[in-house]
TrEMBL record, chain A:
It is a peripheral membrane protein. It comes from Salimicrobium humidisoli. Pfam families: ABC_tran. This is Ectoine/hydroxyectoine ABC transporter ATP-binding protein EhuA. The keyword Cell membrane applies. One of its GO terms (molecular function) is ATP binding. It is found in: Cell membrane. The keyword Glycoprotein does not apply. Residues 2-240 form the ABC transporter domain.
């Protein structure tokens, strides 16, 4: 479903991503972990083209982009629709109600008729447990509810993959569970997901593959069991030990 | 003696003048002051949005042109701009640059509003969190769709108070159009003074009418702000 080859990205002199390769099969959940500044968020943003790598190529579903070519805006837009992005700070549209947030992509981008889009949005909101909050503005919702609207908004464009950028990092501890539950449910339904997170228990339970990144490179990858219980690399061990403290 | 005079000032004769002058002044308001204000404000607003987006475009030619425009307009008096457009261009001998007084005033006021308001709009666009652009892009929106659906509606909320300031300022500045013989309200007042010789009375009356218009505008501003604030926690 996703094939990323030799993705490199720099911010000025800083090499944030060094020839990253990754592969995600349909229906699999890949969790990316690593210390802050390791490039994990940048990698995720590259999958959605919010950042454009200098080199490498990326395939999602049937579309491929080679970053050495000049890429048209049209192509970028089409490519973005393949993935649904969930942001750390939700980034809901504050001037729209919950359901309007969810309908916005289908109505404006995919030109779905409003009644049809509303019906679909109601279904998605029900799925994330927010049916009764449809007509509420984001500021009236808790952080966990806002993030669930964020997930619903991303799902509404029927993406082939879901990308989560530290979806629970901005949440109060007691609100994290409700968001993780929704994500777990999506994983169980067989959605292809890439998740950047610090929630190690979520990674252990849900991930098919865990990627540990440090200093812009993949240090280690494997099943949760391999990475968490029998890490081979010194840096992975150190990072995991820091988390236990 | 002077106190006595002041009390006598609102004599029946003066009240008569006030009554007689009110309708002509209001005609000036309705036929020139308000249309001129509204039209120049809306043309100016369109100019301002284009200018602000040019400034923010990152395209050197566009942002440079926008900078020069804003700099020239902000660096010169409105009265001078008005004279250049009406008397200056009108004197070139080119037929289509000979404007009617109203058109000349409309051009000068629109250009002026456009420059000032562009800074307001630029600041309010920048005040919208970068995450909003990203969220809009992430669901597949184009630049124009993001702007229209996500960014400008939020920028609008921020820009209402300073834009209201600009509009209220503009209403009062239309009095400058009297200098190029637009029969707006202040011009009417001057004409009446020329026959009645009661400058204090007429100019205070004109001032009161300007104040009343601006008072109504402030009320409208409050209403718009309330409507726009419905989605923020206040």
């Amino acid at each position: 479903m996703i094939t990323a080859t030799d993705i490199s990205k720099r911010f000025g002199d800083l090499e944030v991503l060094k020839q990253i390769n990754m592969e995600v099969d349909t229906g699999k959940v890949v969790v990316i972990i690593g210390p802050s500044g390791s490039g994990k968020t940048t990698l995720l943003r590259c999958l959605n083209l919010l950042e454009q790598p200098e080199s490498g190529s990326l395939t999602i579903d049937t579309q491929t982009i080679d970053f050495r070519d000049k890429i048209s805006k049209h192509k970028i837009r089409n490519f973005r629709r393949l993935s649904g992005m969930v942001f750390q700070t939700y980034n809901l549209f504050p001037h729209f109600t919950a359901i309007e947030n969810v309908m916005e992509g289908p109505v404006i981008v995919q030109k779905v008729k409003k009644p049809e889009a509303r019906q679909k949005a109601e279904g998605i909101l029900a799925k994330v447990g927010l049916k009764e909050k449809a007509d509420t503005y984001p500021y009236q919702l808790s952080g966990g509810q806002q993030q669930r609207v964020g997930i619903a908004r991303a799902m509404a464009i029927d993406p082939k993959v879901m990308l989560f950028d530290e979806p629970t990092s901005a949440l109060d501890p007691e609100l994290i569970g409700e968001v993780l539950r929704v994500m777990k449910q999506l994983a169980e339904e067989g959605r292809t997901m890439v998740v950047v997170t610090h929630e190690m228990n979520f990674a252990k339970e849900v991930a098919d593959e865990v990627i540990f990144m440090d200093e812009g490179a993949v240090v280690e990858r494997g099943t949760p069991l391999e990475v968490f219980e029998q890490p081979k690399e010194e840096r992975t061990k150190r990072f995991l030990n820091l988390l236990k403290e | 003696m002077s106190l006595f005079n002041s009390i006598l000032w609102l004599s029946s004769e003066n009240i008569e003048i006030l009554k007689d002058s009110f309708l002509p002044l209001m005609r000036g308001v309705l036929t020139y002051t308000i249309p001129l204000s509204l039209l120049s404000f809306f043309i100016g607003l369109v100019l301002a949005i284009v200018t602000a987006l040019s400034r923010l475009s990152g395209i050197a030619l566009l942002s440079g042109a926008a900078r020069v425009y804003v700099s020239i307009i902000r660096g010169t008096p409105l009265l001078v701009q008005l004279f250049i457009v009406y008397f200056g261009l009108g004197n070139l001998g080119v037929e289509f640059l000979k404007f009617e007084p109203f058109t000349g005033a409309l051009i000068a006021f629109s250009l002026n509003t456009g420059a000032y308001a562009s800074e307001t709009i630029r600041a309010s666009i920048l005040s919208v969190n970068k995450g909003q652009w990203e969220a809009a892009s992430s669901i597949g929106m184009s630049y124009m769709q993001s702007l229209r659906r996500v960014i400008l509606p939020q920028a609008a909320r921020v820009s209402i108070p300073p834009l209201s300031n600009s509009f209220i300022g503009l209403v009062k500045e239309t009095s400058l159009a009297s200098t190029i013989l637009v029969s707006e309200m202040f011009r009417k007042a001057q004409e009446i003074v020329a026959t009645t010789y009661t400058p204090l009375l007429l100019y205070i009356e004109a001032a009161a009418i300007y104040w009343a218009i601006c008072f109504v505008l402030s009320l409208i501003q409050g209403g718009i702000e309330n409507k726009m604030n419905r989605y923020v926690n206040t």
